């Protein structure tokens, strides 16, 4: 379909909104659909209406009826993020911000306000800032992090395993992502309920959000001061000492971006994967039957429920054309991750399994493509695997339709994920795994891992046995699984 060429600036010559009850309700000036308010409670449905009406790129309205293009096509989103000469992440280019249409108290200001961070930078400045982030990330010991994820999972499960019930969002997903990120940044002692609460509060944008942001910035500023004086082998020290020579403000802002982006996205991803495992009988059967691995389940979830559903935004640097629409210099475009992932041109059957296909938009693409995706995937892979290993009989503790969601333009996430299971004793996370573990595990709790054979959680603690060499040695006859566990420990899986 070739949509009628449209211009966002055409919205001036418009009629008033139709009254409630009118079929056109939910639209604003110019008859454009709103992406906010009660009409937009199901944004997925709004995007499909927009796709039917306009094709791959549709005009719509943000809060205060600020015009925006929504990029709905998979290819159009990819083209946009990969064309830095035409589209920028620098919010200062956006006409409605320049001409005062977007007021300083606009509800989306936290996404819009320009900051000296890699997310908003381009060209050489982007290379400098992102280079420092990537340089610091490249020093992360991925094998050590996978062990830490497993250990943190065991600690968290110990807190509720004897109760027989838990809320996985509040007691597991949000805590696991924060615990891992505090370890990576080099501040494991700062991981506690308060920092989890502050991050959650900040993202909810409640009246205490400013105080919560100040608390997190204070923690990160103190960390920066400590690491400047006494560097260690952590992300923060490497960020500070990177040849890009970030100043203290830049270090603090990038630590905040990394902490908050990682916390929010991985907590959402964990909850999404666990919800599907708990509610979709086919999905669980495929996992238990060995046709699907946890990493494949994670990838499927990145297609179906990407942790960021959209990103605000990209901004046109020149007059151009996208998806048949005429885009003017200074127009804003919403990176449509969720609608792009269900573009019928790439997914004619949205129920079809995307096994093996990683071309979803969850991590975006182009120069700003998420640099933390391996860490996000590792937290989800190891965390879900280890949780299912501890609680193989876990079940949803409510009807599926009773689950509550909180939706915003940037994401849609579960408020709670109540589960029940037979109470289990705590596990001592300091002892190395028993060699007979896999033989003891009930078969209905086994997550199929055809390629991996064993589970991530079994590499909890390095065995004290002699250090294995990378060259495979003949397996001696011993208890089943031991050699593979040693191999996996060596690989850091
Ligand atoms: C499942 C988890 C994650 C998802 C779905 C995700 C997704 C994204 C997306 C969509 C972007 C925006 C790209 C754009 O502007 O076009 C982004 C940027 C970014 N992410 Fe992630 N992310 C995840 C985990 C992480 C983690 C764990 C870290 C850090 C350890 C991280 C660090 C960053 C940074 C620094 C940027 C800005 C990059 C730039 O602008 O150059 N992310 N992420």
Hey, roughly how much beta strand do the residues contain? 5-15%
Q: What ligand molecules are bound, each kind once?
A: protoporphyrin IX containing FE
Rough outline: globular
Mean pLDDT: 84
Instruction: Give the CA-CA distance, first to last residue.
Output: 46 Å
Q: Helix/strand-derived class?
A: alpha+beta
**Biggest sheet overview:** 6 strands, mixed
Q: What is the number of helical segments per DSSP (H or I, 4+ residues)?
A: 17
- What is the element string, with H for helices and E for strands? EHEEHEHHHHEHHHHHHHEEEEHHEEEEHH
Q: In angstroms, what is the radius of gyration? A: 24 Å
**Tally of DSSP β-strands:** 13
- Poorly predicted ranges: 1-5, 9-18, 20-24, 432-480, 489-493
Strand order of the largest sheet: 1-2-3-9-6-4
Helix content class: 40-55%
GO molecular function: heme binding; iron ion binding; monooxygenase activity; oxidoreductase activity, acting on paired donors, with incorporation or reduction of molecular oxygen
Protein name: Cytochrome P450
Family: Belongs to the cytochrome P450 family.
Organism: Streptomyces lacrimifluminis
Can you walk me through this structure?
It comes from Streptomyces lacrimifluminis. InterPro entries: Cyt_P450_B, Cyt_P450_CS, Cyt_P450_sf. Residues 437-457 have a biased composition (Polar residues). Belongs to the cytochrome P450 family. This protein is of the alpha+beta class and 493 residues long. It is built from 17 helices and 13 strands. The protein has helices at residues 43-54, 74-81, 95-98, 109-112, 123-137, 142-160, 168-185, 193-204, 209-229, 235-240, 248-279, 281-288, 294-304, 337-341, 373-390, 437-440, 482-491, and strands at residues 33-34, 57-62, 66-71, 87-88, 165-167, 310-316, 320-322, 325-327, 332-336, 395-396, 405-407, 412-414, 418-420. The strands form 4 sheets. Strands 1-2-3-9-6-4 form a 6-stranded mixed sheet. Strands 5-13-10 form a 3-stranded antiparallel sheet. The protein is globular. Residues 1-5, 9-18, 20-24, 432-480 and 489-493 have low confidence and may be disordered.
């Amino acid at each position: 379909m070739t949509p009628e060429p449209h211009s966002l600036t055409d919205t001036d010559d418009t009629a008033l909104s139709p009254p409630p009850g009118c079929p056109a309700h939910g639209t604003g000036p110019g008859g454009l659909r709103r992406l906010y308010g009660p009409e937009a409670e199901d944004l997925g449905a709004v995007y499909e209406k927009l796709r039917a009406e306009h094709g791959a790129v549709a005009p719509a309205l943000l809060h205060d009826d600020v015009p925006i293009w929504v990029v709905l096509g998979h290819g159009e989103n990819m083209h946009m993020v990969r064309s830095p000469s035409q589209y920028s992440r620098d919010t200062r280019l956006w006409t409605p911000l320049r001409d005062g249409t977007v007021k300083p108290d606009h509800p989306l200001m936290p996404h819009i306000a320009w900051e000296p961070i890699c997310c908003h930078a381009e060209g050489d400045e982007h290379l400098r800032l992102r280079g420092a982030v990537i340089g610091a990330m490249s020093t992360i010991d991925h094998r050590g992090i996978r062990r830490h994820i497993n250990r943190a999972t065991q600690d968290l499960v110990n807190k509720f395993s004897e109760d027989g019930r838990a809320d996985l969002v509040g007691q597991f997903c949000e805590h696991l992502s924060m615990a891992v990120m505090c370890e990576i940044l080099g501040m494991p002692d700062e991981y506690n309920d308060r920092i989890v609460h502050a991050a959650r509060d900040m993202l909810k944008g409640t009246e205490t959000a400013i105080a919560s942001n100040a608390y997190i910035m204070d923690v990160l500023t103190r960390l920066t001061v400590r690491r400047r004086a006494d560097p260690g082998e952590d992300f923060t020290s490497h960020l500070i000492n990177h040849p890009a020579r970030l100043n203290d403000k830049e270090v603090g802002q990038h630590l905040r971006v990394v902490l908050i982006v990682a916390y929010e996205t991985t907590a959402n991803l964990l909850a999404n994967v666990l919800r599907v495992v708990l509610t979709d009988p086919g999905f669980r059967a495929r996992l238990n039957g060995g046709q699907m691995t946890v990493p494949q389940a994670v990838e499927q979830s990145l297609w179906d429920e990407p942790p960021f559903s959209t990103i605000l935004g990209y901004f046109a640097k020149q007059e151009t054309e996208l998806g048949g629409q005429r885009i003017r210099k200074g127009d804003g475009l919403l990176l449509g991750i969720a609608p792009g992932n269900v573009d019928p041109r790439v997914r004619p059957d949205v129920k079809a399994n995307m096994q093996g296909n990683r071309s979803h938009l969850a991590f975006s693409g182009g120069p700003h493509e998420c640099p933390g995706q391996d860490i996000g995937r590792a937290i989800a892979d190891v965390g879900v695997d280890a949780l299912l290993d501890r609680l193989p009989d876990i079940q949803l503790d409510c009807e599926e339709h009773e689950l509550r969601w909180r939706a915003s333009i940037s994401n849609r996430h579960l408020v709670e994920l109540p589960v029940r299971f037979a109470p289990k004793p705590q596990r001592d996370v300091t002892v190395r795994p028993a060699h007979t573990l896999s033989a003891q595990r009930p078969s209905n709790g086994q997550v199929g891992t055809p390629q991996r054979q064993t589970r991530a959680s079994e590499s909890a603690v390095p065995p004290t046995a002699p250090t294995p060499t990378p060259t495979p040695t003949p397996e001696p006859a011993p208890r089943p699984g031991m050699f593979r566990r040693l191999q996996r420990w060596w690989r850091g899986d």
